[in-house]
Amino acid sequence: MNDNRVEILLVEDNPHDAEMTIRALRKANLANRLTHVKDGAEALDFVFSRGVFSERSVHDKPKVILLDIKMPKVDGIEVLRQIKADENTRTIPVVIMTSSKEEQDIITSYNLGVNSYVVKPVDFEGFAKAVSELGFYWLITNQSPD
Predict the structure, then answer these.
(1) How far apart are CA 78 and CA 69, in angstroms?
(2) Consecutive H or E run containing 83
(3) Span 135-144, average pLDDT
(4) How many Cβ atoms from other residues are within 10 Å of residue 115's Cβ?
(5) Hey, is 10 helix, strand or coil?
(6) Which residues pair with 143 in a beta bridge?
(7) For 24-48, b where at least 16 C-beta lie within 10 A, e where not — what string?
(8) CA 8 to each of CA 5, 29, 102: distance values in angstroms, whole numbers, following the listed order
(9) Buried/exposed 11-22: b ≥16 CB within 10 Å, e otherwise
(10) What percent of the chain has pLDDT over 70?
């Protein structure tokens, strides 16, 4: 395995939520190979090795993408749509982590192939527990194709 391989791609525009997520993953010793991008356009550039990420190998896929829905430039639904539409990236597990409980967002996400849809808990302890459990499951327990 490539030592530079990113295991978690965190796509989150809210700096507070991003910091809480990173802190929870760090506490669980799961943040060593994490990359944080701040919007959907940056996420697509990362996944498809474009723009500032053009030097990155498109074959070094993250083990999991933690994706917010409501973001500037390109929203999470469109990021999910493009990732799952491409045969080279559709097997990357994508977990929507959002404050949206809108039924249409949930239905659309599952119709597009999301692997999990998690509504962010309001309190830090609940949030940290949810993130840590997600990290353990997707990085340790789950077996993904190479």
Answers:
(1) 9
(2) helix 76-85
(3) 81
(4) 19
(5) strand
(6) none
(7) bbeebebbeebbbbbbbbbbbbbbb
(8) 9, 12, 25
(9) bbbeeebbebbb
(10) 95
Q: Output the DSSP codes for 133-144.
A: HHHHIIIII---
**pLDDT tens string 96-116:** 998 888 999 999 999 999 999
Q: For the whole model, what pTM was predicted? A: 0.90
Q: What is the mean pLDDT of residues 56-68?
A: 91
Q: Is the pLDDT of residue 1 over 50?
A: no
Beta carbons of 121 and 13 less than 8 angstroms apart: no
What band does 83 get if pLDDT is binned at 50, 70 and 90? very high
Nearest CA among 25, 72, 68, 74 for reference residue 48: 74
Comparing C-alpha atoms, which of 105, 126, 133 is closest to residue 117? 105
Tokens of 128: 């940290």
